Structures are given as C-alpha cells and as structure tokens.
C-alpha cells in the first residue's frame, strides 16, 4: 500500500480522537495494525486512545514499544508527546526528543521540541545546554536568549544551592553580553539584561544602559522596564535623581501614578533616612526641613490644580506630613488633622476614602479628639449619593478608632441599630435600580452585620448571629449580587451550624476557575465536620472534586503558555508563569481540600486495600511538598475597630485558622495509619508508580526516615489544631505506636508484594530481581517470619480512654449549646473509630490471628471498638434528639423573638425574619439528623466488622 | 490616583474583589496567560496605595495593513474604586503603547449598545462608534433592552499614524454588520 493510502486510513483515527471517541479509535487502530504490525504512528495513536480510556497499563506497554524504536517522524513524536503527557512521563518525553534530535541534528524543529520538553519539566540545566547548541548551529539570537533565561531560571530554582546562584548569574551575564545584537531591540530582552545586572549588583552598568537613548525610550513606554529602572536607581542610591525625574513627570506630563509621588517623597527624606542616628543628622534635618517645605508647596499647587479630578496630591500631602512627624521634622503640630480634614472634604464622597485614610488614623491625645469631633460635626444625610457616601465614611472612620472602653455589648448593639436605621433610610436612593445593580447603601448593612457579630463575641450570645443573618439576608433582597454580604453570611451560617445555607450562598457568589483556589476555603475548610457522606449525601465530596478541577487545568495548560512565552520571546513573563504554576500546583488550599476529601471518603466507602494504598501514595506526595498559601481572606469586608480582631478572625470556625500546621498534622495522622495498614513500602511504590515523581522540597526533613518524620510534633501544628483535634492527634500517634510491631511482623515482604502485583497485572515492565533486599530493611517493611510474634501489650491509656474523654467533652458542649463544636466532637470521635478499623484491618482474618498468636491483641482492640461504638451510639441518639427539637414552630419563635433589634423596624417585616428562622432551623435540623443517622449507620457497619 | 503597573500572572490570586463583580467575567487561566504571553505591555493593573487591586485592562494588537490596531479586550474597575478616572488612565496607557510600540492606526473596543454610561465615557475619551455588530453578545431573544442588549458598538479612536482619521466615520451607528464579519 502506498504511503498516501495509509495516510488516508489513518486520518479517521485522528478524527475519532478529536471528537472524543477513543473507543472507535482503538478499533480502527487494531484493524490497521493487522496489516502494519510495526507501524509506530498507529501504535502511538492507539496508546493515546488507551490513555483517554484510562487503560493505563495497556497504554504503557504500547508506549514503551514505540519509545524503543527511537522514532523521528513528526506525526509519531507529536502523538507520543500527548501519550507521555497523559501518563505524566515528562522525563521520557525529554529522552524521546533528545534521541530524535541526535539522529537529525539539522532539524531545527526537533531541537526546539527538545528544548521545550526540558522547559516543561523545569529541567533548566539541560534546557540551557540545548539552547546553546541550537544557537551554535542555527545562529539565531533567540536561542542565545533562551539559554540566558534558562540559566537565570536554574539560578532561581529552589533546588539550586545558594552558592551556585551567583555563578549562574555570571554565566548568564557572559552569555547576554556575547550577543551580536544589543538587548535594547526588545523590551523583554532589555528587561532580562537589567535583571541579571541587578542580581550581580552591577548597578553602574545597568544605569548606563538605562540612561542611554534606547534605554530611556523603552522606559517611557514599557511599565516593566520602568519598574526595574526605578529599582536600579534606588539600589544605586540615586534617590534625589529619581525624585527630580518623578517631579518632572508629575509637573510637566501630568503623570499621576502614585509611584511617582512615592519617588518624590523618598527623595525628600533620603538624607534623613541615610543619616538617621548619626551625628550629622541635625544638618541633614535642617536641609530636609527646607526640602519638605518645597515639596509641600509643590503638592499644594498640584492639589489646587487637580481639584476633584485626582486625589494623588492631597494624599501625598498626608504621607509627607506622616513621614515628617516620624522623623520629628514636622513644624506644625496641627497640620496632620488639618490635612485629614481637607482630605475628607475633598474625597469624603468616594468609597475609597476610608481605605485611603486608614494608614493615618493612628492619632493620639488632642489630635484624636480633634479628628473625632470633626467627624462628629459633619451633618449626615442620605439626601443624595454623595451625602450618603460621606455618611458611610464618617461611620466607618469613627468606628475604626473606637477606644476599648467604647466597645461594650450594649454600645455595639445600639450602633447596630443606628447603622440599620441609616441603611433603611438610604435604600430610597437605590429605588428603581435594575436588579443587577448594587445598592449604594449596602455598606450600612455590612456595618450593622459586623457590629452584631461583635456583640455576639462580646456577650457570647448566639442570638446576635440570628440578628446579623436577618439583616444581611434583608440586604441581599435589595442587592442580589453583593458578594460581600454573601461571604459574610457564609461565615455566619457556618458558625450557626447551618452549613447547607452557607454552601448555598457560596455557590451564588459564582466562584470560577482560579478563584476556586483562593476562595474554596470558605466552605471546604474542615468541611468533614459538616459532611453527611455517611448517609450517602455526597454534596461536600463533589464540591471538593469540582473545586479541584483548576489544579488539573493548571498542570495540563500552564506549561504550554511558558512555551508560548519562549516562542514569543516574552521573557519577562516566564518567571511569573512558573511561579504561578508552582503556587497553584503546591497550593495549601488544594491539599487541605484533599485531606478533607479523604476524611469524608472513609465515612462513605468501604475500607479496601485499594483505597488505602492509593490515598497513602497521594498523601505521601503531598507531605513532601512545599506549600503556598494562596487563600484570600482580604475579600471579607472589615469594619471592626482597629483594637479588635478583624471580622475574618472573629468568624473563623472554632477560632482556629487551619493552615500549614493543620495540614501537616492531618497528613501525619493519615499517613501513620494508612502506612501501617498498607503493604506498600517505598521500594514497592517506586516500582509500581507510573509517571515522574514530583520535585522534592529542599527541606532537609524530607530526607529523614518516614517513622521519624511522622512521630514529630511541632508547635506550629499544635497552634492550628482545636483542643479536640490535639486529642485526636495524640490518640492516633499512640495507636500507631502501639500497633507498629504487630504490623511489621505480619506484613509480607516487599518482594512478595511486588510478585503478587505483577502476577495480577501481567506487566513485563516490573522486574522483581531489581528489588534489593536491603531496601526493604530501611523501612518498616522488613519481616522476620521465623521469629516469634511480638508480645501482646495492653493498649496505651491515651487510646483506651479516648472515647470516654470525647464523650465527656460532648456532654460539656451540649450544656453550652454550641452546635458546630458538638458536630466537631462527634465527627472526630467517628473518625477515631474508622481509623481504628483501618489500623486493625490486617488482623481481621481469623487465620492470621491464629498463625501469629495475636488473639489477645484482637481482644484488646475489640473492646476499644465496643467502647467507641457505645459512645457514638449515645452521641447519635443525642444529636437526633436535638435535631427533633430544631425546626419546630417553637425554635422558629425563639429565633424571631431574639431578632427584636431587627423587627423593631417596620421596613423588615415579621414574616421575613420568620422565613430566615425557618431556613436556619431547618438547615440545623437537617445537619443534626443527618449526622446522627450517619453515625448510627457507621456504628452498625463497624460493630459487625 | 493609584499605582499603574504591569499585570502579572500571580495577580490572579488577588483579583477577587474586581472579578466577583457581576459584570466582570473570570476566564480560564489560559485566557490571561495567552494575553500575557503575547502582549504583556498591553495588560496593566491599577493598585491602591494599600496594596489592594483596583482594576485592570487586557488588550491585544491585531489586524492587517491599515486595519492594524490595538484592541481593548477587557477593562474593569472594582465597584469600590469607580468614579476615580482609573479607566481613563488605563486606556491612555493602552493607546500610548498601541501607538508608539505597535504603531497601530487606531484602538478599538466593543460595548453593549444598551450601556449608555460606558458609551458616554468612551466618547469622552475620544472614541466614536464605527459600526454596530449584531448579536455580538449572543442572541438573548428580544428582552427588556431589545436589540441594544445583544448588539455591540465597535468604537474606535484614531492614533497618530492615522492623522486623516480614516479609521473612523461619522455615521457609524447606522453601519450594521453581522457578528460573523468581525474578528
């Protein structure tokens, strides 16, 4: 058959793959392979179809066959690229292109593909070598720049030792200066050049380049170049020169970039800053005083000229005075408050006024009194939008500086009433707005909500949260799309133990794409507390899966854009893209969500070795990661007085923010137990894993043996755990410690495990003899079958008493009626039972117990399990009982009666609050009954186990 | 007044206060990265002195021969920072770069025909309607705003390379094209 005919037959395979029918593709491939059994392209396409069908094992076999042929044709390479990516085998991709390029060293495209394969894995050293080779061969300057930036990226890589950094930058410098064309031909090349000089502290050289005609031109149009120019000027100590330049831009070009104003301010104080503390400071002070006056005049002039059009100059005057004060160079002690008053008069009708003034509000004594009386003297009205905004600003500003004596529950309560009154008053200004618009008066509803939350904190009175919820729900009826109000409600409903309402509001915010990473913490932090997965309700489990999609997108797509940036020579973007990819890939929110997912999953599914092994491998990966915290907490509005914690801090569930320490503790908990229950040890895992291992963190702890890493506890971890979580952590460590010798005695040897697995999959890629026996000894996998079983010891007290302790805590909490805390105790107790079940799974078969004479041990944890089940049944009954009393006319009535602060206003009618009451009490009822039933179900399941 | 600086990939972790606004779309990460990997100089961010993000513009350069121009793909300001002339400053920068770096003939942008506030603002910046694009925002069915909701005005402003203002016309509102005819 001719090549053209074959090509015609292959085309439909591509079509099937493109249209998402990999099954058809496999069938077509099989047909063609009968005629062309050695055709690599067809094999590669079949492998790709198999990857899409998630038939990984078959795909691997084909993939390895194709790789062995060391193919060089475009079509096969391109198909294989997708296969290898799907299998996560990036290192093989490098080898594949490398082989092809070696065979066809004049093929430029293969050369750049090899380069990109290295780029995708962050293999900068080799990337640099490939780029250098490309440059030598094809004499295109772009390849030289590829090698320069690869060197820079290698220097910046976290795995590069600090001692190598400077060396690499020097190499980059040598390379870039060897370029036949000057770097100023493109802003990105130029930027890269200056970046290298900055790192090497060659400021004079950088300055000369920047000050050249081309340099100046680039800086005038490229924000990026100008950014680094400003940096170099400062590093070189050219504060004054930068100040003069900035002043010129402000005056002559009407530039109002705040950075220019900051440059002028920095120049003004440059002498004082540099001589601060030395003897010549007096002289510098006098000179600076004159400078300050000159600059003040300049800013006053600009302020007059700009009027209402721009607030830069008035704000710069405030900053000037603040800095002058801090160096004791201020001449007029009344100036600060004068300027603040002027600022308010000018900008008070803009929403940003409060935020702008915040840094200047730390006034004392007389100043504070003057400022307060100024604000209090302002006539408040809601006659028009400007007046309304001014009124909101006055309240926010006054609230910010409240002294501790002014913050009592009563005073806050009356403030809430006042804010609510202003809110209802101001609504008239938004009448007739389309439903898609926000009410201009919304901030008063937010203020009222925040004051009420404060009363809740001060008086420890849950009913205040009912009021807050009612006010904010009312606010939402007027501004459907206020994400601020919704996010506040998410927090409040979580605190009220009504998670379904929290989730509803969160979903209405319409969080998308990358926002899943920064915002999912609102509903997924400690989500297992609210999960009803045991009863089959997988709401939270699927929420985790959906929110995690973004991480797959990131690992599949972001490196493509790094490659594009190389192709387009946008070097300035490459480090940012890599940083972005890394922060998303190693996101704290991602892995905290993963841990929650596992915690919920074990209440929902049967405990199988598959589940245990898979989760173990994944959690161990996560444990080796260096995490980034991308969570956005700033998004919650905060109008609480500065002497108090922010609204975000006040409304954290259990008053603890689960961050890196929390994640580390829970990873230790799960890895400890799963590792004991699993037959996989590191060596077996290595053999069985498909794809590349992630880059290891440079933390020296990663190199320590697992046992040591898992048994350590740090203060950072304990600080982020609730007292109940600390007890749970103690319980797990004691449990693992106790059962360790018995697991080690029974667990089959790594070689046996591997033989078993190989038999099942029939894969030829795994070779048992590669497994050296000494590897097995290094970890907990070693067995001495001939020896006697370890002597059976009694369970440690921490384990045997755990369930009684939790029961006591539960009863205490019932008295104080804190619903989420009750849920917290119950879910942790339930988790402790499941963890016991996982850790004793190995001892379930009677034959095992008999052979190893571990009957006494089994008796021991049978009795603990019985205790656990007894306690949990009691808790379940209690939850169901409370659940029954929720959601009745009685509880609704109590709720509404507690909302007198809100119902006192005729605008918010009784039925509205009653409806809120109904929704809250029903959500609580659902939560309590769901958890109660779930616990009972698990008790039944595990008592028979 | 604010800090005007380049839009960076990592700003995606911090732009919630801008993007949770109903009228601002949050696209897939590929959208932002594709613009940044080609036209980083046409993407910029406004930041408040406090460090909070206020608004951004994302643009590109496209077109052949005399149609070569700068295009405003997305321009947005967080609700709390409106009425501070931020849009004008970002558009100014985009025009400057389109003119001096890309040597474009004009800058253009699309706006809902019903969005009178925005149209008025752009007219104030020197833009004028070049044509009306049918169903640019999808066929919504004839609702409250009728055709004005789904149609877009393509608004243009000539740059220094077009001193004779050939890229604009006076009767643009009457020039109606289908959305399939525009890029």
UniProtKB/TrEMBL annotation, chain A:
Pfam families in the cross-refs: NatB_MDM20 (PF09797)
InterPro entries to which the protein is assigned, alphabetical: NAA25_NatB_aux_su, TPR-like_helical_dom_sf
Transmembrane segments: none
Domain of life: Eukaryota
GO CC annotations, alphabetized: NatB complex
Sequence similarity: Belongs to the MDM20/NAA25 family.
Protein name: Actin cytoskeleton organization protein
Organism listed in the record: Piloderma croceum (strain F 1598)
From TrEMBL, chain B:
A single GO cellular-component term on record: NatB complex
Pfam families the UniProt entry points to: Acetyltransf_1
Domain N-acetyltransferase: 2-160
Keywords: Acyltransferase, Transferase
Domain of life assignment: Eukaryota
GO molecular function annotations of the record: protein-N-terminal amino-acid acetyltransferase activity
CDD domains, A to Z: NAT_SF (cd04301)
UniProt keyword Acyltransferase present: yes
InterPro entries cross-referenced by the UniProt entry: Acyl_CoA_acyltransferase, GNAT_dom, NatB_acetyltransferase_subunit
PROSITE patterns tied to this protein: GNAT
Alphabetized PANTHER family for the sequence: N-ALPHA-ACETYLTRANSFERASE 20
Annotated protein name in UniProt: N-acetyltransferase domain-containing protein
């Amino acid at each position: 058959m001719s090549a053209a005919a074959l090509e015609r037959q292959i085309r439909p395979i591509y079509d099937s793959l493109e249209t998402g029918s990999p099954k058809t593709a496999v069938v077509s491939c099989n047909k063609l392979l009968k005629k062309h059994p050695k055709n690599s392209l067809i094999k590669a396409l079949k492998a790709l179809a198999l990857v899409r069908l998630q038939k990984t094992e078959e795909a691997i076999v084909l993939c390895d066959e194709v790789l062995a042929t060391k193919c060089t044709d475009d079509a096969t390479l391109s198909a294989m690229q997708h296969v290898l990516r799907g299998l996560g085998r990036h290192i093989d991709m490098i080898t594949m292109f490398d082989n092809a390029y070696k065979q066809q060293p004049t093929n430029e495209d293969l050369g750049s593909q090899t380069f990109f394969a290295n780029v995708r894995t962050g293999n900068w050293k080799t990337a640099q070598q490939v780029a250098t080779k490309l440059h030598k061969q094809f004499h295109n300057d772009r390849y030289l720049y590829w090698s320069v930036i690869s060197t820079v990226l290698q220097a910046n890589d976290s795995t590069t030792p600090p001692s190598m950094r400077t060396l690499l930058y020097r190499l980059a410098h040598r390379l870039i200066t060897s370029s036949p064309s000057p770097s100023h031909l493109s802003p990105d090349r130029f930027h890269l050049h200056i970046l290298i000089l900055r790192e090497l502290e060659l400021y004079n050289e950088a300055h000369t380049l920047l000050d050249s005609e081309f340099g100046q031109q680039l800086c005038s149009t490229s924000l990026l170049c100008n950014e680094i120019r400003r940096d170099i000027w400062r590093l070189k100590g050219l504060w004054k020169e930068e100040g003069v330049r900035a002043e010129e831009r402000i005056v002559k070009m009407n530039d109002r970039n705040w950075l220019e104003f900051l440059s002028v301010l920095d120049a003004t104080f440059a002498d004082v800053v540099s001589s601060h503390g030395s003897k010549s400071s007096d002289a510098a002070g006098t000179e600076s005083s004159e400078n300050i006056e000159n600059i003040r005049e300049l800013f006053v002039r600009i302020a007059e000229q700009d009027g209402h059009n721009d607030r830069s100059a008035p704000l710069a005057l405030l900053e000037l005075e603040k800095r002058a004060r801090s160096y004791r160079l201020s001449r007029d002690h009344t100036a600060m408050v004068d300027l603040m008053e002027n600022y308010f008069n000018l900008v008070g009708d803009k929403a940003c006024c409060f935020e702008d003034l915040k840094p200047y509000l730390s006034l004392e004594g007389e100043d504070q009194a003057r400022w307060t009386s100024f604000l209090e003297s302002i006539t408040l009205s809601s006659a028009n939008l400007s007046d309304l905004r001014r009124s909101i600003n006055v309240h926010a500003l006054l609230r910010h500086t409240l002294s501790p004596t002014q913050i009592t529950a009563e005073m806050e309560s009356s403030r809430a009433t006042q804010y609510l009154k202003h809110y209802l008053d101001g609504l008239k200004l938004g009448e007739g707005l389309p439903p898609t618009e926000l009410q201009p008066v919304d901030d008063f509803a937010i203020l009222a909500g925040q004051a009420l939350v404060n009363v809740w904190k001060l008086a420890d009175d849950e009913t205040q949260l009912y009021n807050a919820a009612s006010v904010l729900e009312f606010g939402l009826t007027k501004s459907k799309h206020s994400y601020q109000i919704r996010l506040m409600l998410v927090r409040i409903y979580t605190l009220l133990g009504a998670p379904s309402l929290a989730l509803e509001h969160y979903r209405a915010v319409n969080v998308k794409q990358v926002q899943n990473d920064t915002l999912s913490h609102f509903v997924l932090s400690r989500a297992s507390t609210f999960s009803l997965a045991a009863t089959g309700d997988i709401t939270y489990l699927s929420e985790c899966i959906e929110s995690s999609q973004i991480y797959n997108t990131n690992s599949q797509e972001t490196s493509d854009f790094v490659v594009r940036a190389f192709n387009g020579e946008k070097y300035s973007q490459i480090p940012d893209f890599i940083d972005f990819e890394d922060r998303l890939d190693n996101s704290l929110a991602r892995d905290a969500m993963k841990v929650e997912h596992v915690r919920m999953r074990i209440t929902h599914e049967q405990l199988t070795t598959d589940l245990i092994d898979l989760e173990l491998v994944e959690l161990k990966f996560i444990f080796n990661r260096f995490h980034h915290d991308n969570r956005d907490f700033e998004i919650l509005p905060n109008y609480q007085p500065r002497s108090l914690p922010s609204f975000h801090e006040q409304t954290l569930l259990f008053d603890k923010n689960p961050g890196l320490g929390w994640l580390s503790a829970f990873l230790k908990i799960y890895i400890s137990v799963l590792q004991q229950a699993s037959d996989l040890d590191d060596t077996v895992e290595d053999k069985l894993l498909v794809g590349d291992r992630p880059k290891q963190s440079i933390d020296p702890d990663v190199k320590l043996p697992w046992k040591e890493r898992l048994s350590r506890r740090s203060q950072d971890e304990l600080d982020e755990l609730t007292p109940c979580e600390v007890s749970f952590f103690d319980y797990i460590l004691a449990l693992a410690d106790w059962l360790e010798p018995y697991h080690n005695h029974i667990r089959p040897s790594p070689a046996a495990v591997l033989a078993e697995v190989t038999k099942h999959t029939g894969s030829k890629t795994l070779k048992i003899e590669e497994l050296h026996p000494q590897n097995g000894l290094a970890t907990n996998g070693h067995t001495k079958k001939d020896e006697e079983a370890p002597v059976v010891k009694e369970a440690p007290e921490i384990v045997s008493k755990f369930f009684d302790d939790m029961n006591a805590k539960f009863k205490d909490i019932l008295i104080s009626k804190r619903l989420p805390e009750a849920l917290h105790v119950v879910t942790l107790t339930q988790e402790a039972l499941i963890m016991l079940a996982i850790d004793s799974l190995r001892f379930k078969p009677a034959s095992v117990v008999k052979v190893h004479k571990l009957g006494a041990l089994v008796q021991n944890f049978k009795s603990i399990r019985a205790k656990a089940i007894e306690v949990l049944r009691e808790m379940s009954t209690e939850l169901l009982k409370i659940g029954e009393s929720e959601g009745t006319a009685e509880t609704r009535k109590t709720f509404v009666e507690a909302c007198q602060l809100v119902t006192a206003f005729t605008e918010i009618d009784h039925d509205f609050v009653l409806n809120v009451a109904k929704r809250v009490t029903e959500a609580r009822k659902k939560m309590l009954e769901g958890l109660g039933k779930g616990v009972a179900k698990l008790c039944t399941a595990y008592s028979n186990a | 007044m604010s800090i005007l600086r380049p839009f960076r990939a990592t700003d995606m972790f911090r732009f919630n206060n801008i993007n949770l606004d109903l009228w601002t779309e949050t696209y897939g990460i590929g959208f932002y990265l594709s613009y940044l990997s080609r036209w980083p100089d046409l993407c910029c961010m406004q930041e408040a002195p406090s460090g909070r993000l206020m608004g951004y513009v994302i643009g590109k350069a496209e077109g052949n021969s005399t149609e070569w121009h700068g295009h405003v793909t997305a321009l947005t300001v967080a609700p709390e920072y409106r009425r501070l002339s931020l849009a004008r400053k970002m558009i100014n920068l985009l025009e400057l770069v389109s003119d001096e770096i890309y040597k474009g003939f004009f800058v253009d942008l699309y706006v809902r025909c019903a969005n009178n506030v925005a149209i008025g603002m752009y007219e104030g910046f020197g833009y004028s309607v070049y044509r009306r694009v049918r169903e640019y925002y999808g066929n919504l069915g004839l609702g409250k705003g009728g055709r004005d909701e789904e149609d877009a005005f393509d608004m243009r402003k000539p740059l220094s390379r077009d001193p004779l203002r050939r890229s604009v016309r006076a009767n643009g509102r009457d020039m109606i094209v289908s959305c399939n005819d525009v890029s």
